[in-house]
Amino acid sequence: MIGEPAALPLLQMALRVEQDIFVIRQRGREVAAVVGLEHQDQVRIATALSEVARDLLRTTGGADVSFHVDAGADGRFHLRADLAPVSPLPDDRYEPQSGAVSRLVDTLSVLTVEGVTVVRMSRRVPANAPTPTPERLAEFRTELGRTAPGSALDELTVQNGQLISALDEVRSQRDELAVLNEELAETNRGVLALYNQLTEELEETNRGVVALYAELDEKSAQLRAASESKSRFLANVSHELRAPVTAIIGLGRLLTDSASDPLTDEQGRQVDLIRSSAADLLNLVNELLDLAKAESGRIEPELAEVDLRPVFGQLRGTLRALATRPGVELVVEEPTGPALLRTDEVLLGQVLRNLLHNGLKFTERGEVRLRANQNGDRWQFEVSDTGPGIAPELHDRIFEEFYQIPGATRVGGTGLGLPYARRLVTLLGGTLELASAPGEGSTFTVSLPTGGA
User: What is the pLDDT of residues 83-114, one digit of tens each?
Assistant: First the structure.
């Protein structure tokens, strides 16, 4: 909580004439930028402000506008804008441009605060923005106080002041005064014409922004539907393929059984090839099914207290047989101390086994090493290898489904292992990151919370 100083507004403004709408939009965007909102959110709240301000100016004759930063119940800070009408609202059913405008902010409502009716809107401040302590809020107020609204009307105010000073100095020169008055009138007409043009452009921009965000919402729904369809397709196809592939493997095993008729050497070689290919296909089908389950949310972690030492011992025993290259050593370091965390032991084992298997496939000499250490309230699992390394521009791509690094380092596989591992880590409430460079090997780091997801 930031305490009592949060009640002091960051900025206060008055809405009385149409020109104030342009200024309120500009200042609202400046306040949003100062507290740390991203550019798109700055545009959203500024657009919502100008739309509601225009409605209040038409229905109540104006409002007093103030900006605040609050600590919300969700643990996040919020930029709040209050518009207090200068006269009563039309009726109790008043809704400030609800619908499209309400999608531009997190909250939009009409409420009574200490007997005063207020139209209130708010937007969450990003978690990575500077924490708005009382001292930082004071700096925000100072920074906003140093900036003045920049518009065509500001220029007119300056010209009016200069004209008054000139009139005081040359009051006796009536002819020149008439000329100056005519010039001022012409300037006023030009500024008003410019303002009318800016107002029309602003209204058109607002309509475009509202329409754009409505279209983005529709596209997002379409993408979610497409992703769900893809997951259902992968699951259905995987189930349908598993039965015939399993049958092929079983028939191949029968052909090579000692109780069956003997095969020629060529027949035996071809049957072995069939069995090997079928096993690879079954592995692909299983990985597709696992990935489909993860994407559709059908994998639910079963959290329990897990001792890492037996988990590491099992990994050391089951994967040692895969380290068949004479120049490659598999090293699984024993965790020190009470190595306990709350997680799903099966899913964690799948992630670490996948990363170790991946390292053994790509490492021709040196070692593949697994180590773990506790850092505060998180456990860090590092799987490092001395393989060829991965270029920085490919770090994100290797987590894409079916992608494999091209070139001489490419080995057999489906390209589904790493995407599946990252999804499992996400389900466990953690992250999976990569540090690698060509010729320097690779290190995959899994970070999990000690207390579970």
Answer: 999 998 877 566 665 567 888 899 999 988 88
Q: Note whether 13 and 65 are within 8 A (CB).
A: yes
Q: How far is CA 198 from CA 21, 193, 331, in A?
A: 11, 9, 69
| DSSP class of 335 | P
- Distances in Å between the Cα of 150 and the Cα atoms of 30, 197, 290 are 11, 16, 57
E strand or H helix at 204, and its extent?
helix 174-255
Residues in a beta bridge with 254: none
Residues 200-234: tens digit of each pLDDT: 888 888 888 888 888 888 888 887 776 666 666 65
Q: What pTM did the predictor assign?
A: 0.43
Cβ contacts of residue 84 below 8 Å, gap of 6+?
Answer: 63, 64, 65, 66, 116, 117, 118, 119
**Coil/strand/helix, residue 263:** coil
CA nearest to 433, candidates 405, 402, 392: 392
HSE on the CB side for 309, CA within 13 Å?
7
Helices (H), 4-69: 18-35, 39-60
Count, residues in the chain: 453
Interhelix angle for 417-427 vs 265-296, to 10°?
A: 30
Distance CA 52, CA 402 (A): 49
**Six token digits for residue 83:** 């518009």
- Distance CA(137)–CA(69), nearest Å, equals 8
Q: How far is CA 225 from CA 216, 220, 232, in A?
A: 14, 9, 11
DSSP state of 212: H
Burial class (CB in 10 A: 0-12, 13-18, 19+), 405: middle
d(CA 40, CA 36): 12
Least confident of 139-153, 285-299, 304-318, 350-364: 285-299
pLDDT tens across 21-67, in order? 888 888 898 899 999 999 889 888 988 998 999 999 999 999 999 99
